[in-house]
TrEMBL record:
Domain Flavoprotein: start-end pairs: 18-186
Protein name: Coenzyme A biosynthesis bifunctional protein CoaBC
Origin species: Nocardioides caricicola
Region called Phosphopantothenate--cysteine ligase, residue ranges: 204-420
Taxonomic path: Bacteria, Bacillati, Actinomycetota, Actinomycetes, Propionibacteriales
Region entry Phosphopantothenoylcysteine decarboxylase, spans: 1-203
Gene: coaBC
Pathway: Cofactor biosynthesis; coenzyme A biosynthesis; CoA from (R)-pantothenate: step 2/5; Cofactor biosynthesis; coenzyme A biosynthesis; CoA from (R)-pantothenate: step 3/5
Family recorded in the similarity comment: In the C-terminal section; belongs to the PPC synthetase family. In the N-terminal section; belongs to the HFCD (homo-oligomeric flavin containing Cys decarboxylase) superfamily.
Keywords: Decarboxylase, Flavoprotein, FMN, Ligase, Lyase, Magnesium, Metal-binding, Multifunctional enzyme
InterPro entries: CoaB-like_sf, CoaBC, DNA/pantothenate-metab_flavo_C, Flavin_trans-like, Flavoprotein
Pfam families in the record: DFP, Flavoprotein
Domain DNA/pantothenate metabolism flavoprotein C-terminal: 199-414
Sequence positions that bind CTP: 292, 302, 320-323, 340, 358, 362
Length: 420
């Protein structure tokens, strides 16, 4: 059995991580204030580099007050320090939020007509773009070509969110929520330049949460899954460059930045969406907790208490075994399937004994085994597990953040993905 390594964020110099926050001229520039606040309050040394257009939306005094340092606005200030080179060279991370179509085009073609685009050319650290623009601009072939070019060069371009845009317009192009962009930045900083975007060009599917099987319009059979581990897996995969589809069952969490979220309630709905998404996926991680059974005849009205105190008899039918289905009926050659096993151990065997039996029974490549005795793990920000492989591998992951476990799982997945 091997023990996993952890993913810690640190500047190569051992000092506070140095982040350059580039802000381009879109209405979403005001949201970058919240991103800046989260970065500074969590101990990052942030230099804000707004474009001239961005300063029309949010003025330099705001950026200075929130960052606690002067704002770098042009190549002509403090020329003796050569800011157009120095800022990018000394950064541990550059994040552009919002990134307009104009900035994406300039970055893709190597134009450098202001301080931000000069910084992008000189940066040798990870670069994250968080696009925000109208749907038509995002979907235009020129923008899509520029995004593809940036991704090919190793930049992380987050998929924009869907929702309300400027005015009455809605669609894809909305800036992801600042908290979610912040989480992506932390993920990227934690991996640094060594991990890279090893899932770039890959499509992965993650399920999360717990399904509900309705007894009547009010009551349901459910479980305690919070969805936190599944969301951590989706967020980590996006930070590693993957195209991510997250099938979420009854989860009350904000959408991770750059992730397509499909919401479901029942196990049958979960099965249908996972199978559909798996058809084009390189890897599927089933972190959701689907109900094993469902009522065969749910009531169309609320079930009332009987006057004689008797309880209604409920007949249950077995739900589809999603993990077994996608493992034994692979949609693509080389597809990696990961399951989860929440075990407590019983008279038939220990937690790991039951996990190994489940791994063989389901036919998946990896099984993440959790000891949930006493309700451990559910709703907690931390987790610990043993990752069992069909090839006999066993990786023990010590208790830590669910994000750390997520990265170890993706490490194991990438080792098993076919090259190319």
């Amino acid at each position: 059995m091997t023990t996993s390594t952890t993913h810690e964020a640190a500047s190569p110099s051992g000092e506070r991580p140095r982040v350059v926050l580039g802000v381009s001229g879109g209405i979403a520039a005001y949201k970058a204030c919240e991103l800046l606040r989260r970065l500074t309050e969590s101990g990052h040394d942030v230099t804000v580099v707004p474009t001239a257009a961005a300063l029309e939306f949010v003025g330099a005094p705001t950026w200075s007050a929130l960052s606690g340092k002067p704002v770098a606005t042009d190549v002509w200030s403090d020329v003796h320090e050569v800011p157009h080179v120095r800022i990018g060279q000394s950064a541990d991370l550059v994040v552009v939020a919002p990134a307009t179509a104009d900035v994406l085009a300039k970055a893709a073609h190597g134009l450098a007509d202001d301080l931000l685009t000069n910084t992008l050319l000189t940066a040798r650290c990870p670069v994250v773009f968080a696009p925000a623009m109208h749907t038509e601009m995002w979907e235009h072939p020129a923008t899509q070509a520029n995004v593809a070019t940036l991704r090919e060069r190793g930049a992380l371009v987050i998929e924009p969110a869907e929702g309300r845009l400027t005015g009455k317009d809605t669609g894809k192009g909305r800036l992801p929520e600042p908290l979610e962009i912040f989480d992506v930045c932390r993920e990227v900083l934690a991996r640094g330049t060594t991990g890279g975007l090893d899932l770039a060009g890959r499509h992965v599917v993650v399920s999360a949460g717990g399904t509900r099987e309705y007894l009547d319009p009010v009551r349901f059979l459910g479980n305690r899954s919070s969805g936190l581990q599944g969301y951590a897996l989706a967020r980590a995969a996006a930070a590693r460059g993957a195209e991510v589809t997250l099938v979420a069952a009854n989860v009350a969490l904000p959408d991770p930045a750059g992730v397509k979220v499909v919401r479901v309630e029942t196990t049958v709905q979960l099965r249908d969406e996972v199978v559909a998404a798996a058809a084009a996926a390189d890897a599927v991680v089933m972190a959701a907790a689907p109900a094993d059974f469902r009522p065969t005849d749910p009531s169309g009205t609320k079930i009332k208490k009987a006057a004689d105190g008797s309880a209604p008899a409920i007949t249950l039918a077995q739900n589809p075994d999603i993990l077994h289905e996608i493992s034994t009926q692979r949609a693509r050659a080389g597809q990696v399937i990961v399951g989860f096993a929440a075990e407590t151990g019983d008279d038939t065997g220990s937690v790991l004994d039951l996990g190994r039996a489940k791994l063989a029974r389901k036919g998946c490549d990896l099984l993440v085994v959790n000891d949930v005795s006493g309700g451990a793990v559910f709703g907690s920000p931390e987790n610990e597990a043993v990752i069992l492989g069909a090839d006999g591998a066993a990786v023990e992951v010590a208790r830590g953040s669910k994000s750390a476990l997520a990265h170890v799982i993706w490490d194991e997945v990438t080792r098993r993905l076919p090259s190319g």
